[in-house]
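INFO batch 0412 | record 1 of 1 | parsing
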Amino acid sequence: MSETQTPWQAPLPAELRRFMARSLVPDMILPDIAEAAPPTLMPPAPPAAERGTADEPVTRDWWVVLAEREAGQIGLQLIDIPGFAYPLWFRAGTEDALLLRHALARTAEDLHFPFVPRRILDIGAKAGYRSLELARLNPDTLICAIEGDPHTARLLALNTLPNRQITPMPCVLAHPEGRFAYEARHNGPGRPMLQRAAQGHVAGVSLATLCGRLGWDRFDVLIVDPACCFGLFDDPAAPFLTSTRLIAVKLPPEGELDAALSACCPEATHVHRISGDYTLFFRREVAGALPAPRKQMLVDAGGRSQVMRLHDVSPEPWGFFMIGDSGFRLHPNSGGAPDAVLAGEVSLAGPRQFSSVVRVGHQDAGPVRFKIAMESAAGEPIFEADIVVGGGQAQNWVVDLPLHFGPAMVRLATAMANPEQGNGMAWAEWLDPGFT
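INFO prediction complete | emitting tokens
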């Protein structure tokens, strides 16, 4: 029996497969030999010199582990990297490991933005390592990662789908639209050449079509590999390009940029800079109104992990549960009982206001008092306020805050406004509480 593995099978050792076959067919006639213990999928224990002690665990640099897993291997591999919430995939035997090391080492320096981008379009994202590093460096930014090569786009989806900031798109940006294919002529190590083909297996979409699918009216940053798109800069009057604050073009191997790009970003309207592997085109700013400040959500189930604690909240029936990603119900206790409290530590950068929609969901409930209290890391009070909302009512509660920078403990609480009233149907809800 051949030991080769099909692409969709997990690489199980031959010894384990034989043991599974014997277990599934117990009545088959086999030689009368002693049955060995079932093999294990656990890797062998490291040498004693690398195990360390319980008080001093051994930590190894991720790039050392990457080199070991890449050496002499071909196929999908996983690696844990500090700063990322889940392991990343790469294909041993390809340029993925090199791209991973380069993205994590150079992206922060080569693509340093003098502003906070809201939306980034990453064309030629390959396996998504650059997009992942940009998402880590800009936690409030939405990123669309585009890769046309079907084999690489599969890996892009594996790496980016768990990240809510990144939307992977398997397509080619082209003007005009059409069908494309990757020809055998190579454009660098392992990179086939993108060509127009009437029967091509890759769809080409225009920039306007792509933004329509994403629901974007514009984006702040465009990162583009010229080898991964067609005619993108042939229409310099496109509003998506003229309103982009920064266009970062990966330098081609020959070192010369497309003439259409130079016409789209002239010196009169853009500042040109070279940064590492990229040519940067900064749009000269025109005086205008500043955008509204972003809201820092106090609770975000789909965001970064944070520690939040409940105090005096009834477990049965449920006194707390999430409403969407950034809202929750905090059921008050009966009159005279302690307040139901949700508490957590946040890091503030001088917000001016706290705001939240506060609502009592049932019209037959008594009035509920919503409270917020803040204190510094040293335990000193910073701010507190409260508001009373009647049954079946909702209010957009906005309160001004004293200036504070650094960590702060925030406590949101609910209680019956009338100490003698019961808490039946008092569905007290905080919707999108946060700071601006």
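INFO post-check: The chain has three domains: 14-43, 115-283, 296-435.
INFO record closed
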